[in-house]
Amino acid sequence: MSLIRGTGLRKTFGDFVAVDGIDIEVAAGESFGFLGPNGAGKTSTMRMIGATSPVSGGELRVFGMDPATHASAIKARLGVVPQTDALDEELRVRENLLVYGRYFGLSREQVRARTGPLLEFAQLTEKTDAVVESLSGGMKRRLTIARALINEPSLLLLDEPTTGLDPQARHVLWDRLFRLKRDGVTLVLTTHYMDEAEQLCDRLVVMDRGRIVAEGSPRSLIAQHASREVLELRFDAADHAERVADVAGIAERVEVLADRLLLYVHDGDGALETVAARGVHPLSALVRRASLEDVFLRLTGRSLVE
């Protein structure tokens, strides 16, 4: 069953096109990601799915319903984790869940019954009576997720869920999301972290300037748009473009960066042996597996877009 289906989906703000005719489909139980640079249209798409921003064009169905006519019914079945936590920082942790649960028409008894298990899930049991303002960034993020689960949603929307968190907090949060997926909650998230997309997403789309430029599982995207391995070579050169001729014909593709050459190859160690056999001696060499970041940068470019 498709929980989300969008066809020719568009979102415009005056003359600016934020989302430019994309097709998306998300199945029940799937962990689906929107990957892209800032301004790619990820958040605009999520807001349309969450029935908080009207569709400008195309067709969108969430739980089989049209957000334009059934927004309340859709929101009742959603959990939403926005980019910013927007918690009531003057209230205690448990009070945040109580207030949010009441928005969904839950009784105080229902909220109390759900608060304990949710705070345990979020590893916040010891902070039940703490004022939210005193929590760390990672704790606040976990509380935001716990709050989004108070209505027991079947679909959870997460917009940049780990932005600003330290590595330890990110991994704790990933573990919580793995547990939700295991329990049957469908996850839809936006991110610009490559490792996060590889860790969390069964399938994803890469967006750039409002359009989808690639779609598939992380592994299939790497196989389609990158080589098996990457050989990184650093030379004592003011301009590494001057050394491209030294490695001509060795790689499927060579990318010139300010401080190194990237050789996209099937066998990194074999390519390095070929480089040495030519009498070429870089300052340093690194062989690594191709990653989703290689795919991302090839599809969206390395230039900063504001």
Automatic annotation (TrEMBL):
Its EC number is 3.6.3.-. It comes from the Bacteria. PROSITE patterns: ABC_TRANSPORTER_1, ABC_TRANSPORTER_2. One of its GO terms (cellular component) is plasma membrane. One of its GO terms (molecular function) is ATP hydrolysis activity. It is found in: Cell membrane. Pfam families: ABC_tran. It is an enzyme of class 3 (hydrolase). Keywords: Antibiotic resistance, ATP-binding, Cell membrane, Hydrolase, Membrane, Nucleotide-binding, Translocase, Transport. It is a peripheral membrane protein. Signal peptide: none annotated. Belongs to the ABC transporter superfamily. PANTHER family: ABC TRANSPORTER ATP-BINDING PROTEIN (PTHR42711), ABC TRANSPORTER ATP-BINDING PROTEIN NATA (PTHR42711:SF5). This is Daunorubicin/doxorubicin resistance ATP-binding protein DrrA. It comes from Occultella aeris. The gene is drrA_13.
